């Protein structure tokens, strides 16, 4: 019984960490595909279309008895979610990466946990009491986590030699770096920042919609399907006459779309929705900077990229910030359980008092008849 409880407690943490592993793999694949000329408009369409096709049968079969009826309000929310993340955020993020660098894009995207924390606080999805220690821990942990991500990307320091990266160190040191025009850098930064705001709005809207439409598989399929449809319309409007971008070949670009659709759109939306209903949107997105640590580690193995001291220090700071957020959220869970137990005890006491009063009133009503019979 104790083991089962521990496993249930560990499930949300395992889920969000696995999501970050998925995003880390997608980051490496997307970097390679963009270098090979992948069009970000069609990439978004294929990615979300694949996710909708894969998850729709599971949603139809598994949630046929629990799926709520569609209303105009829910449909509008799904329409907005499909527009915010699958269309606007994904296209702005990859377009901005072309104007800046992948490192800068990843660094700037780590403002998302802070944005979601503020939005969840304002919308009432996250309980925050400034005088409470666990609320202070959540606030401080969010700031520390974002700060660690910035340290990891903006501060380099001396390289750390690893056995599997020594062979690539000569090639990396002799490679030339491309210089970017300041105007393009500003344009790219604005695109990525706007995409991050859309991502944060999407997450908050997803948490709100799940309260009215608690069918995670169906919601995932509908969001991805809506996003793919909207993305198709946008792509035809922007890339008029350029039919070559729709050609599909079994190459890195198609593998990236397939992987991103199933893992980063389908599985990530679904798992995030399940965990979000239990722990809230702040808990899910607080682990986003962990993806940077995983990308750095995986890149050192797969791409033979060198780690530097700044990356290691930033990773330690990120883990420290995550610990503070997790500590604050665990206190929230404990507090909510105590409140629920008190409510149950109060309800049971009230029922007992009502039953006692009813019993006394019944006995009192019988006394006159008993007395007359005597």
From TrEMBL:
Keyword Disulfide bond: no
Major place of residence: membrane
InterPro entries: EamA_dom, EmrE-like, WAT1-related
Domain EamA: 16-152, 187-326
UniProt keyword terms in alphabetical order: Membrane, Transmembrane, Transmembrane helix
GO cellular component terms attached to this protein's record: membrane
Domain of life: Eukaryota
Family per record: Belongs to the drug/metabolite transporter (DMT) superfamily. Plant drug/metabolite exporter (P-DME) (TC 2.A.7.4) family.
Name by which UniProt lists this protein: WAT1-related protein
